[in-house]
Structures are given as structure tokens and as C-alpha cells.
Design a protein that fits this description.
Elements: E1 5-9, H1 16-24, E2 42-48, E3 51-57, H2 70-81, E4 85-91, H3 98-110, E5 114-119, E6 141-143, H4 152-162, E7 177-182, H5 189-199, E8 204-208, E9 215-221, E10 224-228, H6 249-258, E11 261-267, H7 274-286, E12 290-295, H8 305-315, E13 324-326, H9 338-349, H10 355-368, E14 376-383, E15 388-393, H11 399-412, E16 421-426
Parallel strand pairs: 1-3, 1-4, 4-5, 5-6, 7-10, 7-11, 11-12, 12-13, 15-16
Antiparallel strand pairs: 2-3, 8-9, 9-10, 14-15
Helix pairs in contact: 10-11
The protein binds guanosine-5'-diphosphate (GDP) (2 copies).
Amino acid sequence: MALPQVVIVGRPNVGKSSLVNRIVGRREAVVESHPGVTRDRKRVEAEWCGVSFDVIDTGGWLSHGDELDDKVSAQASKALDDADVVLFVVDAMTGLTAEDGEAADLVRKAQRPTLLVVNKVDDNQHEHSIWDFLQLGLGDPFAVSALHGRATGDLLDAVVDLLPPVVETEDEGDGITGVAIVGRPNVGKSTLFNQLIGDERSIIHDMPGTTRDAIDTVIETDEGPLRFIDTAGMRRRARTERGAEQHSVIRALDALDRADIALLVIDSTIGASHQDQRLAERISAAGCPSVVVLNKWDLVSVDNRPSVLASVGEKLAFLGTAPVIKISAMSGMGVHKILPAIFESTEAYHQRVPTGSLNRAIRDLQAAHPAPGARIRYAVQGAIDPPTFTLFASARLPATYLRYVERFLREKFDFGSTPMKIRVRVG
Ligand code: GDP
Ligand code: GDP
């Protein structure tokens, strides 16, 4: 998973490499005492208060003589584009220079959260000189000494505050995708389950689930293992047992809580019933992606098919863009489409878009269709499971515009049918 990017910018000799060394705590970036020495882009991993991030020293890019040549500034813009936080470094000993101004222009254009770092404030004596730098229009200065480590901890606290929130995934612990097969009694859940595990000629393990006497079944597939949740009653079930151990509602809810994806099985000869709607609501509340399986399709006459599909689409509307797969669990018809749909949805559910790519997409999206009376300045994906985006905007965005943003991101980053959340922060 890509780490957030902290990009260090400033004219030569202000102490960027020294600051990187200080942040990383190792002598990793090379420090040159002569200006104008071209250095490659340096990327090192750092950590502060348990938060990991990459530090990118734009080093030599701004050190081609006095002018920013095109190639150099193109490189710097690219790094700025990908930045989650920019540290703009200036030198308290030399004071504000024209070159600082040029570099600051570049930084302001990038519109990334930026901290103004006034370096070489080795002691209180130099502190008064920092206020000159307010002219750069990059906010209040942080006075630090990279060399002596003065106030660099405060700076890092501020950096970490600005980084997108740490993504936490809660899993069963084994990282295996959990599938809940839910549906009313008699819709064909056991038949489907046995088809799925038979289909894959899979290696099957039984694992204890979390509920008392719940047994999960883990199968190996070409695309990785899958855990079917609470399958005690489903596997190779004898006909006579049916009815005795129907999933109680509680069990179904427990299964949904633990699931990464739900298969909602519907009996197509009956269509989506009230109970199916209730289950769909529960799935939607659990926030996990879902696949709707229309079983017993073999029993639906050709004439009735369009109306069955239409009624299911209408009654389960709040599952949104969930794929609908028509199958006959009995004959196996259509069953092969289920596993690919599961993997596609769960992959999208866990996907994280790097901040740089996200903001390029947001820029394109606004170029094609600006929001009425508002601008999105910046966006981050704060969480996965489900993918959750925060848009930092100049004013409120209308619901229609948010739907447009969602469609755009869905398409651009292949989120498929997975649930997504979009939040707006105005300010
Ligand atoms: P860069 O070109 O921006 O990467 O700057 P360097 O990190 O190579 O530093 C340039 C010079 O400034 C070196 O001689 C450093 O030792 C010196 N320097 C860096 N940070 C400080 C500081 O906090 N205080 C003082 N006095 N000198 C510093
Ligand atoms: P569960 O209670 O949801 O687990 O349902 P079962 O898997 O026990 O199936 C209920 C009944 O529907 C059984 O008699 C199955 O043989 C039958 N059945 C299941 N799937 C199909 C199907 O695709 N087509 C037909 N015609 N019957 C099915």
C-alpha cells in the first residue's frame, strides 16, 4: 500500500537534506555544503507517532543556477502533485530571497496543504527574522533548526495532523475474504453453496466461526482463498434435515457483520419479497458490497423473465449498483459467474487511490464539469472498506454534483459496484 507523501521543497542550501535527515533520524539524504550540486530525487520512509510516510527531497530540482528551467520545474510539479503535505523550507540566516518567491509560486499553484518551515533558527536570536516570510503567503512559519533538532518535533506533529487518516482494516484476522450467503429458507442457499465448492474442486477446511457452533468453510480458488461464513447447515445437507436448522435472523446478521461480501439469494419464482427487502437493508447497513443471485432461473418462463428482473431491480434498489446474476444452483447454470463477481467487488472495496492520482482526477472532473458556485480544492481517500472520500470544497456541493463525482471516480478507478462514501468539508 502506498504511503502518504511528504514533499520537501525550497531553493538550494536552505537545509532540505538536513531536514530529511532529522525527520528520518538517519544520515540518509546526502548533505552538500555547496549550492547548485544536482542531486537525484530522494525518497525515504519515515515514521512519527506511529504514522508512516514517505519523505521526498526535491533536492537538486531547484538548483539549476538561478532560474527554474522547465524540465526541473516539471519534475517538481509532478512531486508536488503527488504530495499529501508540502514542507516549504526557507533559510532564516539569509532571509527572504527572490528565489524563495519563485519556489513559493510553484508551491501555491499545487494547492496542497503546505507548512512554511523557516530553518536555521538555531537559537532565540534568529527568531525575530521569521516574520518576514509571512509575505510568501504560505501561512504562519514554523521556526526550526534541522541541524540541532530544535522544534522539529512540533513540525512533525503538524505534518502528521495533515496526513490522510491511517487506514485500518478490520478483518477476521486471517485476511481471507469472508462471504455470507443469505436468503430466506428454501431459496437454494445450500444447493448453491455445494455447487460453489464442488465447482472449484477446492481444498476445504472447516474453521470455527465466532458464534457458538458456527462453522466456516474455507476454500482455495485460483484467485485466492474464500471463507464462507456459518456454513454448518449448508454443506452436503441431507434433504430430511431441511427446516431444522434454517438460519435464524440473528445468525444471518452475525454472518453479515463478519462478511466482506454478501450473496443475497433470491428465489426467482417468487421474486424479491418483503423479507428479501429487509435483508437487503441489513446488507446495506453492514456497508459491505453484495451480489444478488437470482436462483431457480430454470423455473422462470421466458415470458416472465423481464418482469422478474424489473421487480427485483425496483425492490432492491438500495443495493445500488450490485451485480445481479441469474443462475440455476440445481443445474449449475450461471454459477461460474459468482466467484469473479465476488473478487471484483471485494478488490474494489479494499482499493486505495493515491492522493496524487485522486487529485488529478478531481481536476479533470472539474475541468469537464465545474461545480455550480463551488470549487473542490483538494481530495483524500480517508478510508477503505468501503472506500471513503473527503472533498475539501469552497462551498457546499449539490447532491447531483456529488453523484457525478461518485460516477466519475467509480469509472476512473474501477470501483465497479462496491459501496462508496463521499463527504464534503467546506472551508
Ligand atoms: P539543501 O541544499 O536545501 O538540501 O541544504 P543542505 O541540507 O545541504 O544544507 C545546506 C547547508 O546548511 C549545510 O552546510 C548545512 O550544514 C547547513 N544547515 C542545514 N540546516 C541547518 C541549521 O538548522 N542550522 C545551521 N546553522 N545550518 C544548517
Ligand atoms: P436453502 O433452504 O436456501 O438452503 O435451500 P436449498 O438449497 O435446500 O433448496 C431448496 C429447494 O430448492 C430444494 O428442493 C432444491 O433442490 C431446490 N432448488 C435449489 N436450487 C434450485 C434451482 O436452481 N432450480 C430448481 N428447479 N430448484 C432448485
